Amino acid sequence: MWSFTDGPLAGRYDLSFTVPSQCAEELRSGAADIAIIPAIEYQRMDGVVALPGMAVAAKGEVRSILVVAKKPIEMARRVALDTSSRSSIALVQLLCRNFWGISPEFIRCAPDPAAMLAQADAALIIGDPALRIALKLEQFSRKKPTAGFCCGNNPG
Prior knowledge:
Largest sheet: 4 strands, mixed
Helix content: 25-40%
Shape: globular
Structural class: alpha/beta
Number of helices: 6
Strand order of the largest sheet: 1-4-2-3
Number of strands: 6
Strand content: 15-25%
Distance between the termini: 44 Å
């Protein structure tokens, strides 16, 4: 993106930055001519062309997409879905049905992990909120409990 914001292409295009689900809406409505959209939306839109050889993908672990739960996921009866990504929502619904063997109620929520888990047993969290959780988990996993304390000297 540097080329478009600060490099040789700066100022040549009208750029807007938003979450993937909103990019899809802007492309669908004609407000955008090109967009990075959730993969699932390509299947749902008429008249769009995928640019060959391009994708946002990873060969390994992706820390920006998480499913977190207050109990074992197989016991979840309600799952909050971050509305920022439609592909992630579709994948979590498939995982629930075909991998975890559950049929929870799905509720769509703004990307606020605490609020999501206040309303549901589990939550799909993506983007920066997911990265913040993943980084905290990594920090906690590297710390060794001390006598009477865990999680970096927090009582409990």
